[in-house]
Write a structure and sequence with these properties.
Elements lengths: L16 H17 L29 E4 L5 E3 L2 E3 L1 H13 L5 E6 L5 H14 L3 E6 L15
Parallel strand pairs: 1-4, 4-5
Antiparallel strand pairs: 1-2, 2-3
Helix pairs in contact: 2-3
């Protein structure tokens, strides 16, 4: 747009107006097209834990209990650590849901619980949940009708 007066030759300024026009058209196209794109990756947000834990345990749940004296029980049946791995391997071969619970006293050393977790992983368990063994109160039917 500017004219040079008094100088001979060609003006060597670059005209960027067409480039800006193209840039604005592309910007409008991308702004319109961006909300139409579908995202292929679903986002899983962790859910808050329930306020109270259910007291009823499913009958098909596998629960391994460990006490302070290192006695191990599989669904309330005493078992040794040597037999635990083979038993769990046989159980989880036939199951589609490979979940297991380990219930122990809070005073147990972490190493004892990790031994059970290692055995469970080698047996094919996919998910392991840790439960705290609460102090058992008086049995439900005791001494209520004895007055």
């Amino acid at each position: 747009m500017g004219m040079t007066v008094g100088k001979k030759g060609y003006k060597s300024d670059i005209n960027i107006t067409p480039y800006i026009d193209i840039l604005l058209v592309l910007l409008i196209i991308f702004m319109v097209a961006a909300p139409l794109k579908k995202h292929d990756h679903p986002v899983r947000v962790p859910q808050p834990a329930p306020a109270t834990q259910p007291k009823d345990v499913k009958p098909d749940s596998i629960i391994v209990d460990i006490d302070l004296d290192h006695t191990v029980r599989l669904n309330s049946q005493p078992i040794t650590l040597d037999k635990l791995e083979t038993t769990l391997t046989e159980v989880f071969k036939r199951r589609a849901v490979k979940n297991m619970f380990i219930r122990g006293d809070a005073a147990l050393p972490y190493g004892d619980v990790f031994v059970l977790m290692d055995i469970a992983r080698r047996s094919g368990v996919a998910d392991i949940a840790l439960l705290d063994k609460k102090e058992k109160s008086a049995p439900t039917g005791s001494a209520k009708g004895s007055h």
